[in-house]
Amino acid sequence: MHADEAEIDATLVRRLIAAQFPQWAALPVERVASGGTVNAVFRLGDELAVRMPLTAAGAKDVDLEFSHLPRLAAVLPVPVPEPVAVGEPGAGYPWPWSVCRWLPGAILPPDAGIAAPGPLAGQLAGFVNAVRAADPAGGPPSYRSETLADRDAETRAALAQLKPEDGVDVPAVTAAWEAALRAPAYAGPPVWLHADLSPGNVLLTDDGRLGGVIDFGCMGLGEPAVDLIAAWNLFTGPAREAFRAAVAGGDGADDEEAAWARGRGWALSISLIQLPYYRHTNPVMVASSKFVIDEVLADG
After folding, report:
1. CA triplet 244, 248, 249: central angle to 5 degrees?
2. How far apart are CA 265 and CA 245, in angstroms?
3. Which residues, listed in sequence order, are joined to residue 97 by a DSSP beta bridge?
4. pLDDT confidence bin for 211, thresholds 50/70/90
5. Out of 16, 38, 224, 280, which could bridge 58 as a Cys pair, Cβ 3.0 to 4.6 Å?
6. Signed CA dihedral, 93, 97, 99, 103: sign only
7. Residue 51: phi, psi to the nearest 5?
8. What angle do CA 56, 58, 61 make, to 5 degrees?
9. Considering the entire predicted model, what is its pTM?
10. Degrees (nearest 5) of the Cα angle 153, 159, 164?
11. What is the pLDDT confidence band of residue 164, given thresholds at 50, 70 and 90?
């Protein structure tokens, strides 16, 4: 997927575990099938997960999560990964890596969406509200801490890379992007964000409830509309409206309509940039991006 991506397999993980954490050397190691773009994830026994950054940029998330996730986890209403250990470079692998507690749960297919306004919409809105309410003192900027205007050039460059086979209505999408840019800017203080509420990061229980949220590598401080991307990443129709109703008022410094418009713009920008980048390397990300683009147009 990336020009500087490391080659990572179960054999490498076993070597690193045996050398650095011999207490876990006898545990089985199995790669977890995933459309993730930052880490290769391996299950270590029944209770642990190993996260191996694919690139140098992704390796920066290891310290971020160990430094800030335990503090954030204390105020969240659902389970999140519990950091256990940090591994060092070794066996030809050049970056730090991490071990955390395994969280059970299923994820949605990237282009499925949930239409029925069941419990998940309200529970995920509660998670977003709880993240926003966390004490921002000492928090770092989020990976997505910029404004929509800051993303304009990159988003338009991605629009120019779209091809007919992508199946995207470029004029309609361009109009939707420009409408998001016209939304009033956020004037309040930065708040905590997860910043990557995509289908692969939201764990569901067997009965469709919110079982946990994973992958906090983008977390940090930014404008609250960023976490509204879940509305188009995960929901359609009535479920999206239920999410909106439950998350409304989660940040009193913002206008609800303006926040929703910016959230729609964030979801659109992220998906437009992802689509040409992963066109030939990650079908999960491509399917997710097309789903979000379609939902933004349907909702706009």
Report:
1. 175
2. 19
3. 87
4. very high
5. 38
6. negative
7. -110, 120
8. 120
9. 0.95
10. 165
11. very high
